[in-house]
Amino acid sequence: MAEAEEQETGSLEESTDESEEEESEEEPKLKYERLSNGVTEILQKDAASCMTVHDKFLALGTHYGKVYLLDVQGNITQKFDVVQVFGLYSGEEFQETFDCPIKIIAVHPHFVRSSCKQFVTGGKKLLLFERSWMNRWKSAVLHEGEGNIRSVKWRGHLIAWANNMGVKIFDIISKQRITNVPRDDISLRPDMYPCSLCWKDNVTLIIGWGTSVKVCSVKERHASEMRDLPSRYVEIVSQFETEFYISGLAPLCDQLVVLSYVKEISEKTEREYCARPRLDIIQPLSETCEEISSDALTVRGFQENECRDYHLEYSEGESLFYIVSPRDVVVAKERDQDDHIDWLLEKKKYEEALMAAEISQKNIKRHKILDIGLAYINHLVERGDYDIAARKCQKILGKNAALWEYEVYKFKEIGQLKAISPYLPRGDPVLKPLIYEMILHEFLESDYEGFATLIREWPGDLYNNSVIVQAVRDHLKKDSQNKTLLKTLAELYTYDKNYGNALEIYLTLRHKDVFQLIHKHNLFSSIKDKIVLLMDFDSEKAVDMLLDNEDKISIKKVVEELEDRPELQHVYLHKLFKRDHHKGQRYHEKQISLYAEYDRPNLLPFLRDSTHCPLEKALEICQQRNFVEETVYLLSRMGNSRSALKMIMEELHDVDKAIEFAKEQDDGELWEDLILYSIDKPPFITGLLNNIGTHVDPILLIHRIKEGMEIPNLRDSLVKILQDYNLQILLREGCKKILVADSLSLLKKMHRTQMKGVLVDEENICESCLSPILPSDAAKPFSVVVFHCRHMFHKECLPMPSMNSAAQFCNICSAKNRGPGSAILEMKK
């Protein structure tokens, strides 16, 4: 039975796919399936004429006058041959034979209640049946005389029915008819184009007749307007025309579901024929409507059906819509998220389908996010979007290592391993080493730069390092100078902890990471014989590294290694000397020659700062190279100041430097030699006159100047001597004033201090007898001597002053060269 249903559903979907909207990108709002099982059996021999729907069961009426009770799957549960009203779950029953055919019947919505035992029947007249207080059924005519009544809908306390003239609404409480809505197109036969009624809620009635739709609202009349009128009235809030004839109506939230009967004209014969019925969802507006969706349905025998042959029933609780035709019953239901995903996949909108599945993963039943994702990847690959497909693998495959490996092999088959390589997992999960090796080999064959990038980015434990190393070495046999491969091989050696080979390659390439590699992996034992290479690459970094790690590579070892490269040896020893003047003292003699050869500007600072270089050796080298400044310094340091001064005067001819040198030595004989040397040289005399004033009496120089000698700028020099003299006088006077003022201020301060009183109490003792300074009996006279040093004595405990001086001194402070206790305060009582 399930297979039959699937076949029926499939055939309906195939037929629906042939509709005019097949090319549309608009997603349908409803999905369809045929009601099969018992319904199929019934309609093979009979034809459906009407149906009513309950949440738990269906009732199907046929042209042969049969009524079948069905479950929601279409299985027959009961069958009736006469009109009956009875309780399915109770023993009550009503049965009667009418004098004319019954076209329609409707029971009270709350018929189960004892106070609501009412129903109406429609034929040539509308009869209301209700049970009296004695459990007898009585009938009353609500309306007649306007033709057959073919449609009745009961909602709450309101009954709506349609006859040949229009639609009426009856209030069961007030027992009044409250409105009459006439039909618009009287040219249509009411039996061929019957009226369709449905209640949207307790006060909103929707009327469809011909091509017209009216939305009516039942409202309460204001008390002041009632008079003899019913308490309620009807207002048409919306009215519009449709393109086709209406066969049925049903509410869907604030929208309408409309079943339409369609007639079209054949292009070949130009004759009118019955087309497939349409089920539309529309949005009512005040004077028009907006079409939301439209589906053409292929029901069995639609070519022979008329407008009156179609009916639309609905189940309010589940939003199910039943399209009834003589030979077919089709169920339409709102599409769920699974249906939405089906449609997206059918339209190849995989990304939207994947997103919809992720958002509604708790509600979908037929789809899995992973299956949708894999279909999306396959679609991208088929379309040639390999990079996008590879990128999506990260999100879709997640941590599923097996799927990752499957996708990698699939990319290999299409020659797109490079596309997926950036997105391969590198931690959780980790794929088989063979996968990573396969991709590395692919890059190694065609893209050295890409291969190097992967080696840098991928952890070394993802693949068999020795296999990749051998592959790189094989390629280097063909291109031994390829820097990219060499650098990559060095990185592989590093991963493999083969630091010696890695270091050798880095040094060959002069790579900046060589120092970092040495520090990080403590490779100092490996570079002892490669110091020259390191210095050639970057002498600054190399020297800093060697000096920072003297404990690993000794100074002696470095100097020996650099013996054949004295210029590098000098760089190393110079930086060593700048760090510590004493560490390399054994090489200071060697450094003299190195400085003289490679760094003359730093020779003199070296000679000044070094206390370990041999002066004789240094003097010999400087004299050989005619380094005057260095020779002058060495002569002065060795005590031969006169020779140094002579060299300045004779070699440099620089009187200012000679004067500066004489000032530094502060030796009178040097000044005398300088004056004697300069006395016959007017420019030197000018220099001496300008600078000698503060060190030697200028008169000594002036008296020795020969009469008639022309000295440049003599006047200015003499003026400067006088100014310097005046300045010295002013400075002395100023200093004298300051000294006198300070002395006076300090004297006053001392006087104020000595004039202050001194506290004497019971705690003080005599510094001589060590007894309390104050007597226990205060009435007795006593005499106390207090010195300014704060030492206290009984007067009788002090020695008598000498004849030479009447002044008394503190015995304690007198022992300290007569300290501050040179004056006294005397207390008597």
Which helices and strands occur, and which strands form pairs?
Blueprint: H1 2-17, E1 30-34, H2 38-45, E2 48-53, E3 58-62, E4 67-70, E5 76-80, E6 84-86, E7 93-95, E8 104-107, E9 118-122, E10 125-131, E11 137-144, E12 151-155, E13 158-162, E14 166-171, E15 176-182, E16 196-201, E17 204-209, E18 212-220, H3 223-226, E19 232-241, E20 245-252, E21 255-261, E22 263-265, E23 272-274, E24 278-284, E25 289-296, E26 311-315, E27 320-325, E28 328-334, H4 337-346, H5 350-359, H6 369-383, H7 386-397, H8 401-413, H9 417-420, H10 433-446, H11 448-457, H12 465-478, H13 483-495, H14 499-509, H15 514-521, H16 531-537, H17 539-548, H18 555-561, H19 566-579, H20 588-598, H21 603-609, H22 615-624, H23 628-637, H24 641-652, H25 655-665, H26 668-678, H27 682-691, H28 698-704, H29 714-755, E29 783-787, E30 792-794, H30 811-814, E31 824-828
Antiparallel strand pairs: 1-28, 2-3, 3-4, 4-5, 6-7, 8-9, 9-10, 10-11, 12-13, 13-14, 14-15, 16-17, 17-18, 18-19, 20-21, 21-24, 22-23, 24-25, 26-27, 27-28, 29-30, 29-31
Report on this model:
It holds the Pfam family Beta-prop_Vps41. It is a peripheral membrane protein. This is Vacuolar protein sorting-associated protein 41 homolog. It is found in: Cytoplasm, Cytosol; Early endosome membrane; Endosome membrane; Late endosome membrane. The protein is of the alpha+beta class. Among the domains are: about 335-430, Serine Threonine Protein Phosphatase 5, Tetratricopeptide repeat (Alpha Horseshoe), CATH 1.25.40; about 720-750; about 760-800, no CATH class. Helices cover about 40% and strands about 20% of the residues. The chain is built from 30 helices and 31 strands. Helix 6 (about 370-385) runs antiparallel to helix 7 (about 385-395), helix 10 (about 435-445) runs antiparallel to helix 11 and helix 17 (about 540-550) crosses helix 19. The relative contact order is 0.03.
